[in-house]
Each structure stands twice: as structure tokens, then as C-alpha cells.
Design brief:
alpha+beta; 8 strands
Length: 150
């Protein structure tokens, strides 16, 4: 499996500096719901210290963790694609500090600086591909039935 891609370190230096001009430092106490599936997606975060679980509501009483994110990871990509709604929920599993970005401001900057926009979309696509590959691996491990006597 390939190594996880970190948004800020994957962007070229100049584009990272431009993006960071829009960053706002935020924090979430442990057990804070950061967003809910189906809610409006207007921002994203880069986790600094802390851990966040992405989850899916499977019954009215039960959520299942589908991914765990930590320092350097991108939290939220739904702000980039219509219908701009969260596909999962997110909860702080520990105290979290993060850089928060307003999606509309980042999209406007991407129009102003097409190289930044291209770098950002490519990096987010790589992150999503890695997460899909990781999820596929977990599913194969979970649902592969060991053969006995072979």
C-alpha cells in the first residue's frame, strides 16, 4: 500500500504559502461532532495534532467508523464537488487542533491562481485514491474467508 499523502507537504512551496494565507487556526475538544453526513460542506481542515474519526450512520442508533485521520491529514473534500454536502460524519476522537479553510475562498484563489487550483485538485485526488485503496484493503481483509486445509 502506498504512503498517505499529506495536503500541505504535497503542495509546491509557493502554492502552499498562498493557501496558508487563508488558514484559520481552530480547535475541537474530544468527542466534538465536527460535521454530519448530508450537512452543507463549505470548509475543510488540515489536522495538526489530534485524531478524527470519519463515520457512517448505519442505523438510527449506530455509527460505524470508516476511517481515522491524524496529524497532517485532510479532513473534508466535499466542499470541492457538487452537491457540496458531507458524505460522512466526523468526530474528534481526541483534542484536535487544525487549520481551517473556507471552501469558497479557496475556490476563488484557485481561479485567480490556476497552478494552485490544479495542484490542489491533483493532491486531493491522490488523497482520495489512497483512502479508497486503503478501504479496499480493509474490506478484502474483513471479508476474505481463510481456506482450511490448503
Amino acid at each position: 500500500m502506498t504512503k498517505a499523502i499529506k495536503l500541505l507537504t504535497a503542495l509546491p512551496h509557493k502554492q502552499r504559502e498562498r493557501l496558508m494565507e487563508l488558514a484559520k487556526e481552530v480547535s475541537f475538544p474530544e468527542d466534538t461532532r465536527i460535521f454530519e453526513a448530508g450537512g452543507p460542506a463549505a470548509r475543510f481542515w488540515v489536522i495538526r495534532p489530534g485524531a478524527v474519526h470519519l463515520d457512517q450512520q448505519v442505523t438510527p442508533q449506530r455509527r460505524v467508523t470508516v476511517a481515522s485521520l491524524g496529524a497532517g491529514d485532510l479532513l473534508g473534500w466535499s466542499w470541492l464537488f457538487p452537491p457540496y454536502e458531507w458524505g460522512f460524519g466526523a468526530e474528534a476522537f481526541s483534542p484536535v487542533r487544525a487549520y481551517e479553510f473556507d471552501g469558497a475562498a479557496v475556490l476563488a484563489l484557485s481561479v485567480e491562481d490556476p497552478l494552485l487550483g490544479l495542484s490542489l485538485v491533483r493532491t486531493v485526488a491522490e488523497i482520495l485514491a489512497h483512502r479508497l485503496e486503503t478501504t479496499r484493503g480493509r474490506l478484502l481483509e474483513q471479508y476474505t474467508i481463510p481456506r482450511r486445509g490448503i
